[in-house]
Amino acid sequence: MQKLAAAGRVFDLSDPNPTDNSAGFSREEPFLTMQTSRGRRRAASPPSAPRVVEDAAVERPRDLHRDARRRRGPLRQVTEFAAASGIGQKAGIALAATGLVLTVTVPATSPVMATDASGNAPLAASSVSPQPQISADVGAQIDFSRSAVVTQADPDGKLKQLLSAQSAGSVTRAASAGTLAAPLASLVTASPFGYRVSPITGGSGDFHRGQDFVAQCGTSVLAAATGTVTFAGWHQFGGGNRVVIDHGNGLETTYNHLSSFNVKVGQTVSRGEVVALSGTTGASTGCHLHFEVQVNGEVVDPMGWL
Fold first, then answer.
1. pLDDT at position 263, please?
2. Which domains does the chain have, with CATH numbers?
């Protein structure tokens, strides 16, 4: 008789009754205790259910566009996605708002079409406005020259704007330079403005109130700017024949040692107009033009305005 001792009990393995043994325990008892090498007992659980092996041969559904995406590069895919979803346009607007500039070339999904006058058939945009046909003879010569564009400055307007914004006494040299025209066709300095040796007495420390320019007697003297003649006559303090023109806002110009003059008090003269002829009248040692610029009655360096 074959017996098995387990959990302190004896089981008869040759018992013809498969359900009960001599001890009265069922053979179908699901959990048995077994003694380990250290004398401990552990329960033996029933065998687990077999795992179902998935058949790898079963064909999964394929992505129909996978091969097409593989043939296109990553950049092409991103571009197409941006064109289809409008992300590219939104990103461009966002970057433009932050001051950045983004240029993205997105392939057009369809050509720009337009309808004809009847509204029936679509027409290509290029066919709506046909380009004119230009033809010429073989021996024809084409002239690409353009007519000259001449811009005329308005110096009187500049001077008027300068003097209307402030008095002549507050105008800086940088702002006043070039606002007056030359009183002669050619300017060559004979004696500058400021202290000098007097050509009359020969003494030093003589203050020269204007600028002397070389001019032969009878040379045309021109108005430095548009204004009104306030004096035309003999100057008793050495100026000889003298003309004074008021340009407004405290700015005046004087022309001295003239041989003659052809204007009168109250007359309005224009810039560049001939007002007199040069000479050597008054306290003068030779033919020349003594030119003065006065601001609010005080003489200033004429070269700061010419």
1. 96
2. 3-42 (no CATH), 73-101 (no CATH), 179-304 (2.70.70.10)
